[in-house]
Amino acid sequence: MRHRNINEVNKDWLKQVITSDSVIVDATAGNGHDTLFCAGIAKHVYAFDIQKEAIENAKIRTSDFSNITYVLDSHATLNQYIHTPIDGIIFNLGYLPTSDKSTITQAESTLTACNQALELLSSRGFMLITCYLGHPGGANEAAAVKQWIDTHFFAYQSYTYENVSLAPISYFIEKRHRILD
Fold first, then answer.
1. CA atoms within 13 A on the CB side of 28
2. What whole-number distance in Å separates Cα of residue 46 and Cα of residue 60?
3. What integer is the mean pLDDT of 70-98?
4. What pLDDT was estimated at residue 137?
5. Is residue 76 within 8 Å of residue 112, measured between CB atoms?
6. Three-point CA angle 125, 89, 181, nearest 5°
7. What residues pair up with 45 in beta bridges, in sequence order?
8. How far, in Å, CA of 173 to CA of 176, rounded?
9. 171-to-54, 92, 154 alpha-carbon distances in Å
10. Which residue from 114, 127, 49 is spatially nearest to 87, judged by alpha carbons?
11. Which are the contacts of 167, defined by CB distance < 8 A and separation ≥ 6?
12. How far apart are CA 2 and CA 120, in angstroms?
């Protein structure tokens, strides 16, 4: 059975929720694919990454857009740069493709960013988190993310490749489905 590409599923979810008035955060800019996709729809995009190479790649890929703020810093510092509500945040966890695979996202900083994002999200905001399990540390980070989701939300969508060992998994979460404190 051929699986649907997880990035296609993610984009389909994003098309349903991003509008021309949306303020979106790409918490892991990487090579700029999500930043580019969002910039074409949203009012504004904040693109975060800890690697200068990633920010430069994203800038090149999105050079036709002026609605992007690039932040060379950890996604765990969202609240230092963003002080107004956001409509959505995207995490593509793991490492920068075609780069040094020893620089990876970490569960601790990712969960810090998730908690900050939860506070910044508008009342109907969303989070899209894609976890990659196939690299060292990936499975631990994915487990931490899943536990965080289960603690904070009672309804979300997920997608992964059935019967594929260490397949990536995406979670789409809407704030309106949050477990009340």
1. 22
2. 15
3. 92
4. 85
5. yes
6. 50
7. 24, 68
8. 9
9. 23, 11, 12
10. 127
11. 133, 160, 161
12. 38
Contact 83, 20 (CB under 8 A): no
CA 33 – CA 54 distance, rounded (Å): 11
Contact 160, 167 (CB under 8 A): yes
CATH, domain 6-177, list 3.40.50.150, 3.30.40.10, 3.60.140.10, 3.30.1360.20: 3.40.50.150
> What's the confidence (pLDDT) of residue 155?
74
Q: How far is residue 59's CA from residue 52's CA, in Å, rounded to a whole number?
A: 11
pTM: 0.93
| CB contact at 8 A, 90 and 140 | no
What are 142's two structure tokens? Answer: 């994915």
Q: Tokens standing for 150?
A: 């289960």
pLDDT in tens, 37-81: 999 999 999 999 999 999 999 999 999 999 999 999 999 999 999
Model confidence at 4, in pLDDT bands (50, 70, 90)? Answer: confident
First-last CA distance in the chain = 42
In order of 63, 76, 82, 160, 167, the CA distances from 5 in angstroms are: 26, 28, 31, 9, 11
